[in-house]
Write a structure and sequence with these properties.
Elements lengths: L2 E5 L5 E6 L2 H4 L5 H14 L59 H17 L3 E4 L9 H10 L6 E5 L6 H7 L5 E5 L5 H6 L2 E5 H10 L2
Parallel strand pairs: 1-3, 3-6, 4-5, 4-6
Antiparallel strand pairs: 1-2
């Protein structure tokens, strides 16, 4: 069973926490993580690209020259695909790129991503994120105390008091804050470091088990 130190906002250990092995201690399944990330990235595509076919481009109503007698190839419109300014053959049209994975596959991918962070020692647990004031500089000091220099994802529980912390971190680069319910595979993989509050770590062990 994975066991991590619980840190305060000064970076000092104030206890330890046993993580749920079914969520944070499995052997990562890289294939499901790959599929989940591809699915999420596909869902982010707007799909608004569009080209015009020969029926949609402007002009071309008149036959350029008579059918026979000119020695040239017969043609009916200057907006045929082979003409400059003509229509596009099999060009992209607006479409929806979204698709779904089975629920079991998505949950396995999420657990695999969390377990990989544990294996890589890039998952930390803090006691809470309670701050007395809204001060970006103070939160930057917290990140320095915790040794957070790269892209960091903070995960909190709905029971945590994080309003001041959230307002303080908004202007800092490479910081995000999610609740346990908002966690997804793509953002977990995209983060260099995960920081769970103690309540969030326990909640995640129950929700995703």
């Amino acid at each position: 069973m994975p066991k991590l130190d619980v840190l305060n906002l000064e970076g000092k250990s104030v206890g330890s926490l046993d993580l749920n092995e079914a969520v944070f201690g499995i052997e990562p399944n890289t294939q499901t993580v790959f599929e989940a990330v591809i699915m999420q990235r596909a869902s982010l595509r707007q799909g608004t690209h569009s080209t015009k076919t020969r029926t949609e481009v402007r002009g071309g109503g008149k036959k350029p020259w008579r059918q026979k007698g000119t020695g040239r190839a017969r043609t009916g419109s200057i907006r045929s695909p082979q003409w400059r300014g003509g229509g596009i053959v099999f060009g992209p049209k607006p479409r929806d790129y979204k698709y779904k994975l089975n629920r079991k596959v998505r949950r396995l991918a999420l657990r695999s991503a969390l377990s990989q962070h544990v294996l890589d020692s890039t998952l930390k647990v803090v006691q809470n994120l309670e701050m007395a004031n809204v001060k970006t500089k103070e939160f930057a000091n917290v990140m320095n105390a915790l040794g957070l220099e790269r892209k960091t994802l903070f995960v909190v529980s709905n029971e945590d008091e994080v309003n001041n912390a959230y307002l303080s971190m908004r202007n800092l680069n490479n910081t995000m804050l999610f609740t346990v319910q908002d966690l997804n595979t793509y953002d977990i993989v995209n983060a260099d470091v995960l920081v769970f509050t103690e309540k969030a770590a326990v909640e995640a062990g129950e929700v995703f088990a």
